[in-house]
Amino acid sequence: MVANVLLLLLTFSCTAQSKVIDIKKFGINKDITQAFTKAWEEACASTSASKILISSGTHKMNAVKVKGPCKAAVEIQVDGTIQAPKDPYALKDAYEWIKIEYVNYFTLSGKGTFDGQGALAWNNNCRATHQNCKRHSLNFGFNFLNNSIVRDITSKDSKNFHVHVLGCNNFTFDNFHISAPKTSINTDGIHIGRSTDVKVLNSNIATGDDCVSLGDGSRNVTIKNVNCGPGHGISVGSLGKFTEEEPVENLLVKNCTMTGTDNGVRIKTWPSTPGATTVSDIHFEDITMVNVLHPVIIDQEYCPWNRCSKKIPSKVKIRKVTFKNIRGTSERKEGVTLICSKSVPCEGVELSDVSLAYNGAPIVAKCVNVKPKITGKAPTCSS
Ligand SMILES: *[C@@H]1O[C@H](CO)[C@@H](O)[C@H](O)[C@H]1NC(C)=O
Ligand SMILES: *[C@@H]1O[C@H](CO)[C@@H](O)[C@H](O)[C@H]1NC(C)=O
Ligand SMILES: *[C@@H]1O[C@H](CO)[C@@H](O)[C@H](O)[C@H]1NC(C)=O
Ligand SMILES: *[C@@H]1O[C@H](CO)[C@@H](O)[C@H](O)[C@H]1NC(C)=O
């Protein structure tokens, strides 16, 4: 009996404690690329939970691509700084500098920083305005991960988007910080696509592009206690470019502050494109705007660099969108802009306690192909 209890206790303490794999044992003199991959292989094959440790100090790393399925949970704890090569071409054609795929129960933790050293890449990053451009590597690609967490880590100066979340279920970013200069091109914070139950919590995101953006198939996403700025704000879209797009549904953005961003909270869809997906149950609540150029915006004529025709209205249907308790300052008099599609007007849009000031005076709202329900204090619409 006593022996049985002891055995039980031993079993418990063994499963509760994860096996620690310090990458030092694989040699980390100049560069940790090989060590990282070897540590991953060992961790992924472990039948009990394991933790890869990357200690303090500065480490250089080239592109890595690791995947599961793994036999048990895998955590990577980074306490140092990991630098990508400055030369963007050194990463060859890696879509992401760090790609992690097909894992259940993956955790990335620690007080460390992933520094993409993107400055040389930003000048010729692909944008419609560039002819001789290269699609540079993103800092992170998290693909097809379930029940996973990124916490405490910082992602800095990515060469392209910082994070792409694709095909994940139950993925949380907590106290995750992103920083890149306001002038850095295409350095979006977190882009989510085809994923369910994603949370971005308690984070600061400063970039040269979108703070968090939701592509097609983003479902049950919560963005809470997040500070954005500089950058382009929180966006749903852009959507409508392609026919096979999945709906975006159930988004809650709550208690976020947008500081000096181009947009605050935005939904954008392309005109004159075939995509006819839907965007529904989108809720923006308790948002503070500090000197934001377009604080509240639905733009179904999204057409950057005037590279498309606005003649054919967007086919993307937008319904059930609420803007509640939005306050602060706008950089334009037209602080609320709701331009919906003529062929599929927005439905169920609500403005509730939207109180923004431009130069000390209340803002105005422009509403096209939408009749928002107004409750509490909110600007009345003109077209
Ligand atoms: C993640 O969950 C999906 C849906 O339940 C499942 O099909 C997939 O195999 C899971 N992936 C892993 C790596 O466990
Ligand atoms: C989501 O993932 C977290 C982290 O692994 C886990 O603790 C939690 O139980 C998961 N939630 C569900 C509903 O599976
Ligand atoms: C998404 O949220 C909806 C509404 O709250 C809920 O019915 C659904 O079960 C959720 N789906 C997942 C996969 O969490
Ligand atoms: C709102 O978010 C801020 C962080 O930006 C946090 O300090 C504060 O506690 C949050 N408030 C609530 C009610 O969660």
TrEMBL record:
It holds the Pfam family Glyco_hydro_28. It is found in: Secreted, Cell wall. Its main location: secreted. The keyword Nucleotide-binding does not apply. GO terms for biological process: carbohydrate metabolic process; cell wall organization. The keyword Transmembrane does not apply. The active site is at 232. One of its GO terms (molecular function) is polygalacturonase activity. InterPro entries: Glyco_hydro_28, PbH1, Pectin_lyas_fold, Pectin_lyase_fold/virulence. Belongs to the glycosyl hydrolase 28 family. This is Galacturan 1.
